[in-house]
Amino acid sequence: CDGCMELVKKFYADRDKYRIDIVLVPSPGEPKEELRRLWCSKEKGKINNLDILRWLMGSKSDIEKRLLSQKEAEECPAEPLVASLMLAGIYKLQGVPSVVRQDGLAGNGIPKDFDYWLNQSVEPLLKNPFETN
């Protein structure tokens, strides 16, 4: 997705500023198999998070050489992919890209002012609007 690439490029460019975890959420068909190859290759120590980021940005040639084969990836457990779908459900994420802060505040899409969104307080959101005090 174009928005995903925009977000990945932002985080890659500012990788010293932000600490992020990318959760790959599968969709039906071929992309799911690609994600499984990425995940399994990472679990087996063939690639790392930065490699996944580079792969997502389109720099695939060097990384493709180190990925497990499709057959090897099929032998890996599917739990990580199922867990990513569960996380998306827990945070009520609808569509991609979506972002989740460390405190659990989630948003669908990319905030226009990401730093503001990242640092804004959730206190006003937690107040009872019907409280009379």
TrEMBL record:
Species per Swiss-Prot/TrEMBL record: Escherichia coli
Domain of life the protein comes from: Bacteria
Entry protein name: DsbC family protein
Gene3D superfamilies membership: Glutaredoxin
